[in-house]
Amino acid sequence: MYLTTSLILAAMAASFALASWKLKSPELSMAIAAVVGALAGGLGFPTRILVEGLFTNLDLAILFVCASVFVNVYSYTGAMNAVTRKLVRSVDSKWLLLVFMAIFMLIPGALTGAGSVSIFVVGTLVSTVIRYMGLSEKKAVAFVFVFAILSAAAPPINLWTMLMTAQANMPYVGFTKLLALPILLVGAFTIVYLGWGAKRESKEKILAELPEAPEGMNWFRILCPLAVLAGLILLSLYLPFSVPVLGLPLMFVLATIVAVLCNPRKATIKDYYELIGRTMEQVFPLVATVISVGALVNVIAATGVRGLIGITFVTLPIAWIYLTALLFCPFAQGALSYGSAIILGTPLIFLFNARGMNTTVVAAALSLIFPIGDCLPPSRIVGRISCETVGYAGSYMSFLKQIALPVLLLGALALAMLVAPNSFSFLK
Amino acid sequence: MVFLEQAIHVLYFVFAGIIGWFLLRNLFKRASRPGIVYDIVYAYCVIPFLLRVLFIK
Amino acid sequence: MNIKATLSNPKARAGLKAAFLALALLLAFLAGREFHELRHYEETVVSAPGLTERKMLSDYLASLEGTWMDSPVFVYDSGVPGGSVFVMGNVHPYEPATSLAAYIIMENIKVSKGKVFVLPQGNRSASTTGMLANAYPKFFSVPTSFGAKKYRLGDRGTNPLDQWPDPFTYVNYPSRQNLAYQDIRNMNRTYPGRPDGTLTERAAYAVMELIRREKIDLAIDMHEASLMYPVVGTYVAHDRSFDLAMMAAMTLTAGSFDMKCESSPKGLRGLSHREWGDYSDTLAVLMETPEPFIDRVVGPMTEQLFTEGKDEFLDVAARHGLTYVPYSYETGAPLWYRCGRHLSGALEAVAQMGAFFPEKEVLVEWPGYEELKEHDCGYFLHDPGKADPKLVFKQ
Prior knowledge:
The complex is a heterotrimer.
Chain A: H1 2-23, H2 26-40, H3 47-54, H4 58-76, H5 79-90, H6 94-112, H7 115-132, H8 137-153, H9 159-167, H10 176-195, H11 203-209, H12 219-238, H13 247-261, H14 269-303, H15 305-314, H16 318-336, H17 339-354, H18 359-369, H19 381-390, H20 396-419
Chain B: H1 2-28, H2 36-53
Helix pairs in contact in B: 1-2
Chain C: H1 3-8, H2 10-40, E1 44-46, E2 53-56, E3 72-77, E4 84-88, H3 97-108, E5 110-113, E6 115-119, E7 139-144, E8 147-152, E9 170-171, E10 178-179, H4 199-213, E11 218-225, E12 234-237, H5 242-255, E13 260-263, H6 272-278, E14 283-290, H7 303-308, H8 312-319, H9 335-356, E15 363-365, H10 369-375, E16 392-394
Parallel strand pairs in C: 4-6, 4-11, 11-14, 12-13
Antiparallel strand pairs in C: 1-16, 2-3, 3-6, 5-15, 7-8, 9-10, 12-14
Helix pairs in contact in C: 3-9, 5-9, 9-10
């Protein structure tokens, strides 16, 4: 079975690489790799398995659309420009503004467990402000990406940990400090690393370049949609039995309606319809990526390739697990998204548990490693959203080089926790 | 509360329908990524939204 | 004709787009037919003659009526005063040896003292959809003397067609423990449930109400577990039922097969073995059998893997000491073995309740591990075509 599944994996990888090169579409390449995998695995053309896979990330696709519509409508009303002007006008220190921007980035993802939400909600604002603080486009996209993945890993909601603890019958308790401390360290390093040497442009020049805020755009109109969004998220988190389950997409839709109502400029329904149409075009590659990767994942499972990857990793000698964890886990995340926590994370927790190691620290360490894979193929979801939000025109490889150091620091800290979990148990 | 949950449930099918409609629209009329490759991607991305709206999957 | 010129012709291009769409619609139609088949396929069960009543979960919470979470509960009352037992299968329908075990109980049960309630489809909605990202087959078949009997292979959580959306994190009621978002559709994380909560929480509440109103003395929740999960091949018992479960485990291990026993963790909320015991007077026990099919390291997802449980990768994992029960490719973990474990596991728990609490004694018979080992599952299923129509149920 090792040989046959390895051959299927090779066929899928080769077809993905070839299709990516020829077609320049990672989405279609994933779909092609899925079909090739199915054919190589002797499944023929398994219509149900391929189509069922398209549903795997349907909720995520809907979230991306609703969040993008919110951000674009919010920007369309002029609120984004207004808040950027006000921030630039009132805060003088570059470092202080960078710290504010880092906190802005951390909050939405920490509350929802999704780094993409941070990018959608505040990514545009943050990238605009930090560009004016003198950070290059490349550094701006790195800032957005690193804080997005940190926000996803940050407490109170860390989905990787939640999935692993649920599978391992462990309570989701004792993770706050274990997750927060490495995140704060990496966050502080990222601010210094990316902000070092950046020269802030003069306030006057920035304000002259920034589009004027529309007349009538005041703090109330600026904050109201954001407050509604934050309020709904907090209500769901802290008063869950008093409100129905809204789901993040509906929260974004409600905040969008509030943004429309707060728009000081006149706009017709047709204007908004066109805006949504443009947003759909803008967000489509992401939607297509998460939908296509589902088909690939389903075929990976159907053919046994998933099992091959899982068994190969978990049966490595423990030293090799340490050596390859920073490779296997992030790439599994790139392919399987949160499924990586279940496929690789849970067996590792059991493995470390059998060796008398503190499983809470192990789960926390793994949940700091998985998010690194959000910039890796085939899906590279958060990496792509970061690039598109910032409008980064450089190559994806140059973006990867720019994020390498903070990401490696995060990986190194997590690896230290994985190697000596009992030494970190005082943080529980 | 049960009524509200049911209303929200229906609303999500409406969301799926709206998104499916825009994908269909953009398959035939769009400004960016005009190539045939993305015609194919748009076409198959409609499928999950369609089957969800039809209450099949 | 030049392809580039053809594609730059707007009409030809629109035609091509329409062709792609038509192809996509064809795929949607073909797959949709299969999804529809799984959603609407009805399993058949022929009840033993001792059936005294058929209730529905909506009898315990009216708002479930007409929903896909409403599910039949079959009551077998001996008429002789004694205790009462509740047996539930398919709370996680991707573990369907549990519903098959419940059906084998229903088709063969003889109660001579006390009452037995059987709920074969704990989460009926979840049994009508495939588990995403796992490429499970839609059905599995059990060979019988009257042909193959087909059963659904479902999901872990309620079908999104019935409960949608998920929150970004699920907060269990009333413990306020945060759980992964999709656990809001996982019935075995939603106990004790809420009468005005989500559909899954309401179903969980209805099960709690059944246990409370029917004064169930022993409540058994049947599950299957991956072999790399420490609680596999185990009774998980609430504090009050720990002693009887431990005795049952020791008896089974001495006589038939290895069975472990664990105490229900107090810090882990929403699970039957914890909340059934905390929110009612019942003796709550959960049972797990080894199901290789749901291990994440196994090879191709086939019906054969589900029914025979033979997998080379899992054999490698076992040799590395990564499984929590003995496993080898040669023996696998076939369906008869998993159903047999549940049937004998439940019988032994019932017997131990009678030993520990004579006033709650229930005298009941159904086939056990040894019988299934000898005859396999299909032997104990009856031909619906020849049965009394009043005892044939579809669900």
